[in-house]
Amino acid sequence: MSPRDDAAIGRRRFLQLAMLGTAGLLTACSAGAVVPPAATPTPTRTTSTLDDLLGQQVFAIAHRGSGDTWPEHTLRAYTEAVAAGAMAVEVSVHMTKDGVLVCHHDTNLSRMTGVDRDIKDLTFEELAVIRNDARAWLGPATPLEPIPAFRDVLDALAHRTVLFIEDKSGEHAKEVLDLMDFYPGSTSHMVWKQTAASGSYKEARRRGYTLWGYFMDDADRQFDRYQDRFDLLGIYHGASDQAMRDLVAYGKPVICWEIHTRAMRKRVVDLGVRGLMCSNYPYVTASGALAGKDDFGSGRRATGDLPWILTPKYQPRFDEPSRGLDFAFASAATYVLGSLGPLAAPSYGCTFSLCWPEELPGADDGAGLALALAQDDPALVSGPAAAAYLVQLSPQGKLTLLLRQGAASGDRVLATVQTAPVKPGEWASIRLDVSAASLTVSRDGDAGWKATAADGALRGGYLALVKGYRTPQTVRFRDVAVLAAP
């Protein structure tokens, strides 16, 4: 089947879908916690155009279909993002050996499927049996997903949302544009996306598409050379503040990728960026807590929870039998529980349980929970800019409340209490009660294992689990919950 035949069938499918009036629905999150999360509004829009999107002062696009939430560049990710309210999704396109356009980010399949083959060397029939596997990043309960045909993605979404479309190899612009053209109103719903230096913008412009050109970083300072080609400009989140200001100064909408956290959102919006290419769409675009307790037992990472380094290698492991989360790293580690934040009330409680399932670390080593973080950036928990309270339990049973002021100032002990030593595999339950002027920590509900500190310096709204030692003994967490004030 030729790409043009592929396109013609796609157009017929599109018209059938349009007649049926298909629309996405939002599946609400269920919190099941003592303190209910803020309500997430159900999207009411069933059709979004580019004018609708750009009419907002700040707008959001689901990066790769929101790859922190669903397996990236799959039909499931694209449609789930739209059901969650996304007015726009980003789509990357490659061509198979036999001329079928498919959606995937990488030229090679290794990262997402484990199959070391290039897409261009496979027929669509061969590709159809390969599955995207995002379990290392999103959790073991994440379904395996097929690599979708671009035609099927357009059939599902071209009539109701905005698509930022890139010919990822840079070799098939005509075929991609031909298929886009077959969908009625395509220039109102589709944006041509490319690196700023690519030449394919000319053909996309001739066909009437809005153009987004993105700059990988600010190292070569090529803004002046390329910006006038495009209607929308893009910049990577790793660029300097000054580079972002410089790009914004051209007066065109600037879109920043990829946005994983609310802290990242705040930074770039404060610099004048209008568009957020969100890897964590349902979380980044919300302002309140999405849950009141952990969801480790589901085998899926909760929306908003992230490790301190944003790669699958550093995602803690879900332990199905215990419904826990294992930190099995030969380094200190942190894991921000964005799904539970921000905690808005000045007074609240929270609980968590931990154990060392196999071998204990050093007697003075500890693990626990950081609280009152001002931001949800996972890297800040242990960095020099971090400020937080840290509740730690050591294997010898020492329960300590620290004020973490950053590497420059060190940690200050606010309160400590000696409890029973912890045995391998034995769970310890910790509770914190926070008021406007004090913090109280206790273990296992024992009145003798309680300590209070008079301190009201920090009242940020985010929590993070912390493995505070650098040796490889695994620590396991579960039963993290936010409670109403006593």
Produce the secondary structure layout.
Elements: H1 3-20, H2 50-54, E1 59-62, H3 75-83, E2 88-95, E3 101-103, H4 110-113, H5 124-127, E4 131-132, H6 135-138, E5 145-146, H7 150-157, E6 162-167, H8 173-181, H9 186-189, E7 190-195, H10 201-206, E8 210-215, H11 223-226, E9 232-236, H12 241-248, E10 254-259, H13 262-270, E11 275-278, H14 281-284, E12 305-307, E13 317-319, E14 324-327, E15 333-337, E16 348-355, E17 367-373, E18 388-393, E19 398-404, E20 411-418, E21 428-434, E22 438-443, E23 450-454, E24 462-467, E25 475-483
Parallel strand pairs: 1-11, 2-6, 6-7, 7-8, 8-9, 9-10, 10-11
Antiparallel strand pairs: 2-3, 4-5, 12-15, 13-14, 14-25, 15-24, 16-21, 16-25, 17-18, 17-24, 18-19, 19-20, 21-22, 22-23
Helix pairs in contact: 1-7, 1-8
Description:
It is a single chain. The chain folds into two domains: 3-284, Alpha-Beta Barrel (TIM Barrel); 296-483, Jelly Rolls, CATH 2.60.120. Helix content is 20%, strand content 28%. It contains 14 helices and 25 strands. Helix 11 links the parallel strand 8 and strand 9. Helix 1 (3-20) packs parallel to helix 7 (150-157) and helix 1 packs parallel to helix 8 (173-181). The termini are far apart. Mean pLDDT is 89; it is low at 1-45.
State the major sheet.
9 strands, mixed
Low-confidence stretches: 1-45
Radius of gyration: 24 Å
CATH architecture of the largest domain: Alpha-Beta Barrel
- How would you describe the shape? elongated
Q: Beta-sheet strand percentage?
A: 25-35%
Number of helices in the DSSP assignment: 14
Assigned CATH superfamily of the largest domain: Phosphatidylinositol (PI) phosphodiesterase
What structural class should be given to the helix and strand makeup?
alpha/beta
Number-wise, the strands total 25
CATH class of the largest domain: Alpha Beta
The separation of the N and C termini measures 67 Å
Helix content: 10-25%
